[in-house]
Amino acid sequence: MQTKETIQYDDFAKLDLxxxxxxxxxxxxxxxxxxxxxxDLGGEQRQICAGVKAFYEPGTLVGRQIIxxxxxxxRKIRGEESNGMxxxxxxxxxxxxxxxxxxxxxxxxxxxxxxx
Length: 116
Prior knowledge:
The protein is mainly beta. The chain is built from two helices and ten strands, in the order αβββαβββββββ.
């Protein structure tokens, strides 16, 4: 596995990692691999588009807590706005993606809790 470039602590400190609770999940209407997730960040609602459709049924995600990058600039993905990015581990086998595992806290914490 190739290691990425070393960053300074100040670069890491710029990330706003927070716990989000998934309140709604559905297939993205314009993309085969994406899900549209509505998440609660402790009173703030957001939409995130994530390429996890091959690994998760939308109904199984509702109520789950995940870790997101909350201060990522919003962008349109296939016509839908994504306002953040979830964190996930990718399991590879011989260069082929075999599984995606969403990162989450070890136990339930209030939505919007800071990570870091």
